[in-house]
Description:
Helices cover 45% and strands 10% of the residues. The protein is α/β, with parallel strands linked by helices. Helix 8 crosses helix 13 (216-225). The radius of gyration is 18 Å and the shape is globular. Mean pLDDT is 92; it is low at 232-236.
Amino acid sequence: MIVWVASFPRSGNTFLRIVLHRMYGLRTSTIYDVDGVAARLGPDLIGFTERFAPLDELRAAPDAYFIKTHRQRDADVHDDDRAICLIRDGRDALVSWARQESENDSSRYEVELRAKILRQSVAGTGSWGSNVLSWLQPPVPHRYVLRYEDLTRAPAATVQAVIAAMTPELTPLADASIPSLAELRQADDQFFRRGRTGSHRDELPEDLHELFWSRADNRAAMHLLGYAAPTAPAHD
């Protein structure tokens, strides 16, 4: 059986994989040929393992195989598989991704952020809004929506609820411990940066905030998730 660990980049996928590893001893693979995050942070911290068989063979196996992807849902590839759909406020995810891409040259931050807001592709990662909508619509019981806010606020309880819904045969380890953000920042304080909700409030320039909301797919995804659009300023 395959369980996709699906998210737009910088939505908490790495932290979720760490929690799965610490709480259940699960090792996750990725849909990509190279797991850049595991290469950067170390496979043991992430709980990384190589995919040892084609997807069809993993689907037919009795055990659950958790596979990370940042790609949009493809009906031909993903539709019959279980999935954890990890969702973060698009503004925070985009800010965090642009910071990561410009960590060696901070002057490129706004250039990277604008390019990421304007992404368009029917394949691959795509834009934030199209990515989220692809996984959340239509809603189905075998795709579980997990919010970044809940994962970071109460990781153990939140992930236990996910696993109980997705793979109830798994039980948590008796001595499981989840690293704090401070502990993770000791491993890499640029990768594990702020780790909070609402980071866009002091990192997203107003013109790029407007650009984000100008996209119909972003507006639709934000509305679906219950994130309010900014109100226009009052005028005398």
